[in-house]
HTH cro/C1-type domain-containing protein (Candidatus Protofrankia californiensis), 104 residues
Amino acid sequence: MKLSDLKPLDQVIEDQREDAEFRDAWDRMAFARDVANKVVRYRIEHDLSQRELAAIVGLVQPQIARLERADHQPSFDTLAKLSRATGLEFHFEVARGGVELVDA
């Protein structure tokens, strides 16, 4: 298979969203993906490795890796540590059975 034959990620996800189980899991983890994007963006903008960011925040590298994978919801304690160490802000809303970042 050629690279040009592959579907773009957005299309693959959209195709998968037709599956109710996938859609529920995808929607449930939206908050974790939003946090992951903020953490990755911060790390890249500040030219930090996961290990360096972990040291700044007071975590260990595997915790940063898990945050960036967005495979679990971050705890309030973790969000507070990130905010205190980096100045990142996390404004969120718990509604409609889920958690989502909201603009401040």
Notes: The longest helix spans residues 30-45. The helical segments are 9-16, 20-28, 30-45, 50-57, 61-69, 76-86.
